[in-house]
Amino acid sequence: MVKIIIGGVAFLLFIIYDLEQADAFGRQFHNIVRLFFLLGFVFLTFSTINVVRMQVATLAFWKFHSAFFLFCAVCFLFLLIYTLFFALPFQETYIVQDVGNRVCARGMYALCRHPGVLWFTGFYLSLWFALGGLQLLCIALWYCCLNLCYVIFQDRYTFPKIFFDYAHYRQQVPFLIPNRKSVRQCLSTLRKAGDLREI
């Protein structure tokens, strides 16, 4: 129950951070709220590590499928970290100061509007396939549901306020499920993800 609450608090902090980015609170709380995303990330990481540690302690021995899905989890985690923190250097790709806030539609973000959801879900489900356990399954499903609700909130409310060209981006790039066109666009622009471009 504690880990479920911690996960809920983490995503609540993410939402508050996004609202601040959309100027929902004005500028008086700017410096404080900027830390909320990092704090939410710490909460989510701490809760996940704790659950995984407890589940690993219950394993009598490792099976081949456990090692395989643990490898998959590591790959998904790498993709998630890359997508959130390296595919979009904040000052260089998401925001151009002289034209306002502009969406980056290259690389991972040409694949779909919220590629992090794919990697986040793959990470938690792979963890469960690798380690098993009812508690880990419940946490995985709960966090994935919260993440889905979070990106729907971003897509419908905060991002259209933050990025002036988000309506155009939403028309051109699928929400979560990539299509043939978006996969081609992703692969063709992946090495140039640091450049801004309208599609």
Structure overview:
- The longest helix has 29 residues, at 134-162.
- Residues 91-99 and 193-199 have low confidence and may be disordered.
- The protein has helices at residues 2-21, 30-33, 36-58, 64-86, 90-94, 108-111, 115-131, 134-162, 166-172, 180-189, and strands spanning 95-96, 100-101.
- The radius of gyration is 18 Å and the shape is globular.
- It has a two-stranded antiparallel ribbon.
- The chain has 199 residues and is mainly alpha-helical.
- Helix content is 71%, strand content 2%.
Instruction: Give unreliable regions as ranges.
Output: 91-99, 193-199
Largest sheet: 2 strands, antiparallel
Number of strands: 2
Q: What is the element string, with H for helices and E for strands?
A: HHHHHEEHHHHH
Question: Approximately what portion of the residues adopt beta-strand conformation?
Answer: under 5%
What is the average of the pLDDT values? 82
Lateral arrangement of strands in the main beta sheet: 1-2
- The rough form would be described as globular
Tell me the Rg in angstroms.
18 Å
